[in-house]
Specification:
The complex is a heterodimer of chains A (305) and B (469). Chain A is mainly alpha-helical and 305 residues long. Chain A has one domain. Chain A has eleven helices and no strands. In chain A, helix 4 runs antiparallel to helix 5, helix 4 runs parallel beside helix 9 and helix 6 packs antiparallel against helix 8. The mean pLDDT of chain A is 89. Chain B has three domains: 86 residues, Beta Polymerase, domain 2, CATH 3.30.460; 46 residues, no CATH class; 278 residues, Cytochrome-c3 Hydrogenase, chain B, CATH 1.10.645. Chain B has 15 helices and 16 strands. In chain B, helix 8 runs antiparallel to helix 12 and helix 13 packs antiparallel against helix 14. The mean pLDDT of chain B is 90. The chains are: A mainly alpha (305), B alpha+beta (469). The interface between A and B is medium-sized, with 28 and 29 residues.
Chain lengths: 305, 469
């Protein structure tokens, strides 16, 4: 089973771009546009991969190494996150806190690269990204904590197993975790109402800012990493905070349904909601942190079980 | 015929001061080169009409009036760049049309701890006109913003000089597509004013219909653009579709989506028979119903509404001081509209729209457009009751050398000044609503967050091309 899970995990490398692609395609339909096909990210990656990388004058090793480092972080994250509670052994373990660290490292690498270029827009985007990350990362840790408490472990496989079945939903704790994690997905994937992945309006960019100077193969790495972020987050969301069983076969079916459902939800939210004023984002994320803390508190207090 | 008052150069400042004291307002200024010397003219607007006062510039210098009228700042800077006119008391006179490399030559000097600059444009990451914005920011907050426009300066005014008055009209038209009717109508009015011609009822009706059709598609566009500024896709798409329907009505009736070549000097160019007028009235009625429904959707979209209030505030006093016009001024509580004083058009008994709460923010400007759309639909419903005929003009008074035309475009008062030598244009100057409003936009931007600028910008939705000319 773990061999099959390992194959599926690696398949994520190839399947990840399909997630943002499908969201974009569905979003276009919802907005009354024809839109690009779900395969568009693959075409983009092929095009970018075929181009050479360029360095802005005066940039150094930080700028050069950031894209492969970001991609490597996400690749590692990909093999840490189990599929339907099972995973192959890639020697990295399956600890939730390692995942948090990897996502943070990827963000830091890109912010450092923005600083290396000295470009105004890149720095502006990076500064906003880090400001939001202060709250977003706390929220991620707290949401994962709510899932880790019933499992008595931060091993993602154990957390997924502990969240399986219907009993977990009988108390309020897991519901709190689910709400908090929904906000995590919005933050980490950089979607509306927090960030607008479609915009290149220079002054409003968050995630698009730091990668402004990148082109060609570098940009391909970063674009793939953004898609992999979708994969990791949506998979985790479906495995930890959506109803599922403990059987592997049925689990995969439910997982696919869950991820598809989350993609659709993201497309609907992005269509229905305008982008929020940037200084309100910390308040929203702080609100999520309070909910997650409440969930953890309820569990520890014995109300969740 | 517009009254022309000559004052001695030493009296310039005082005469402007007197006019302002008498309740008149500054409406634009332009330089002219004649007989080797330069002269300087100002348009003075009152509740009864307009007049021009002018003076010579001995030695190429005149008294500056920026301390009396901040709204004259851009006019003086433009004349300084294009005609070499010097303004005593305008210190330092920063470049506007020309683009010097030295930042100090065109930017507001801002120094201090934690202040840094963000340079945006002239090439943008979208289909936007070319303009450069220099933000001085402290963190995410904008301290000051300097727009640098005139990337599309084509020298249209100079090119039109020496042309026959009919041949000069396309130059004015090409200043801008979205304001084609307003700009050419201001020009036609100016020429007819100079020549002492008055349009008949048919011509007035036809021109009013064209001007309101232009306003409708522009306002629909602007509402959609505000939605796009905050990434609210349903609003963006709905109003883009409505705008296109409005433009299809234009194309079907007059053969051009932007209503090009519908205005001519001294005569009508468009006519619609009974069937065409009925069809247009029916289409407009449908468009009105649908745009009302789309507007209601926006009013109930909480995430959109949460972005609008208190952002990009242009207060009433600042709007007056900076000479703001059009929806931007009315949203700030200034009930002024050229349509209330338009004897050359069919706006009998028109009252300007006023917002429920003239807060002068993005919300007020957005809401005002919805109110004005209703007014425009009402006007058109009242005018499209009989076939539109090609009207004519009749001689009403003796001709003069200078004429002024003033119309209300979708962005505010657009003024055109024309000087004629017989049928030849010797000087034409176009001051559009956008030109008047750019300093107000820059002012309204200060104190806001950087990511709110696209929203504020779109709530004014000023043209670049008809400023640049």
């Amino acid at each position: 089973m773990s061999a099959l899970a390992a194959i599926l995990q690696l398949l994520g490398v190839a399947l990840a771009p399909l997630l943002p692609g499908s969201i974009q395609a569905l979003k276009a339909r919802l907005q009354g546009r024809r839109g690009p096909s779900p395969w568009q990210p693959y075409r983009m990656l092929r095009r970018l991969w075929g181009k050479s990388a360029v360095d802005p004058e005066g940039t150094g090793v930080v700028y050069r190494l950031a894209p492969p480092l970001v991609a490597a972080c996400l690749l590692a994250a990909l093999v840490i996150v189990p599929i339907a509670g099972h995973a192959g052994n890639f020697g990295l373990g399956h600890d939730a806190l390692v995942l948090v660290g990897l996502l943070a490292l990827a963000r830091f690498a890109l912010a450092a690269a923005a600083w290396d270029t000295g470009s105004g827009f890149a720095l502006m985007g990076a500064a906003r990204d880090l400001m939001i990350a202060v709250f977003g990362e706390a929220l991620l840790v707290l949401a994962l904590l709510v899932a880790a408490l019933p499992a008595h472990s931060t091993d993602l496989r154990a957390m997924s197993a502990a969240a399986s079945g219907g009993a977990i939903w009988s108390g309020p704790a897991h519901w709190c975790g689910a709400i908090a994690f929904a906000l995590v997905i919005l933050v980490e994937t950089g979607r509306q109402p927090i960030d607008n992945p479609d915009t290149h309006l220079e002054l409003t960019m968050i995630h698009e800012g730091p990668l402004l100077e990148y082109a060609g193969r570098d940009l391909a790495f970063i674009q793939w990493a953004a898609a992999a972020r979708h994969w990791v987050l949506l998979l985790l969301g479906a495995e930890l905070f959506l109803p599922h069983g403990s059987a592997f076969g049925a689990g995969i079916g439910l997982l696919v349904l869950g991820v598809v459902g989350l993609c659709a939800a993201l497309a609907v939210i992005e269509t229905a909601e305008a982008k929020m004023r940037i200084l309100r984002v910390p308040a929203l994320l702080g609100f999520g942190c309070v909910i997650a803390l409440a969930g953890a508190g309820l569990w520890v207090g014995g109300v969740g079980a | 015929m517009t009254a022309l008052h000559h004052v001695e150069p030493g009296e310039w400042r005082r005469s402007i001061e007197r006019a302002l004291g008498a309740g008149e307002r500054f409406g634009g200024a332009w330089a002219r080169a004649q007989d080797g010397g330069l002269s300087w003219c100002a348009l003075i607007v009152s509740a009864h009409g307009v007049r021009v006062i002018w003076t010579e510039a001995p030695g190429g210098a005149v008294e500056s009036i920026v301390e009396l009228v901040e709204a004259a700042g851009w006019d003086e800077r433009e004349a300084h760049d294009l005609y070499g006119l010097e303004f005593d008391g305008h210190e330092p006179i920063r470049a506007l049309v020309t683009h010097p490399e030295d930042p100090a030559a065109w930017m507001t000097p801002v120094t201090g701890d934690g202040v840094h600059q963000i340079a945006v444009g002239p090439i943008h990451a979208g289909v936007i006109e070319s303009g450069h914005f220099r933000f001085h920011v402290i963190g995410e907050r904008i301290f000051a913003m300097d727009p640098r426009l005139f990337y599309k300066h084509r020298g249209l005014e100079r090119a039109a000089e020496g042309q026959h008055r009919d041949a000069a009209l396309p130059y004015v038209q090409r200043a801008c597509a979205a304001c084609a009717v307003a700009n050419t109508l201001a020009y036609a009015h100016a020429v007819e004013d100079a020549a002492g011609l008055q349009p008949d009822r048919e011509l007035r009706v036809a021109r009013t219909v064209l001007l309101e059709l232009e306003r409708i598609y522009n306002h629909l566009h602007d509402i959609g653009a505000i939605c796009a500024g905050v990434g609210f896709a349903p609003g963006t798409m709905a109003f883009a579709a409505l705008k296109d329907r409005a433009q299809q009505i234009n194309a079907q009736a007059f053969g051009h989506r932007f209503l090009f070549a519908t205005i001519a000097v001294g005569r009508g160019t468009v006519e619609l028979d009974v069937a065409a007028v009925d069809a247009m009235r029916a289409q407009l009625r449908e468009l009105r119903t649908d745009s009302r429904a789309a507007w209601r959707e926006l009013e109930f979209a909480g995430s959109l509404q949460a972005r609008l209030g208190g952002v990009g505030v242009l207060g009433r006093d600042d709007a007056l001081r900076l000479g703001a016009v059009g929806p931007a001024a009315r949203a700030a509580g200034i009930r002024e509209d050229v349509r209330t004083l338009a004897p050359r058009l069919a706006y009998d008994g028109f009252t300007p729209a006023a917002p429920h709460a003239p807060a002068g923010d993005v919300e007020a400007r957005l809401g005002l457009r919805a109110v004005e759309l209703e007014a425009s639909f009402d006007l058109l419903a009242g005018l499209l009751v009989a076939p539109l005929a090609r009207g004519f003009v009749g001689r009403a008074e003796p001709g003069a050398s200078v004429g002024i035309g003033r119309v209300e475009s979708a962005r505010g008062a657009t003024a055109c000044a024309v000087e004629l030598d017989g049928d030849t244009v010797t000087r034409v100057h176009l001051r559009t609503g956008s030109y008047a409003n750019w300093p107000a936009l820059a002012w309204a931007t200060a104190g806001n967050l950087v990511p709110d600028f696209p929203l504020i910008n779109k709530s004014f939705e000023l043209c670049y091309a008809c400023v640049d000319r």
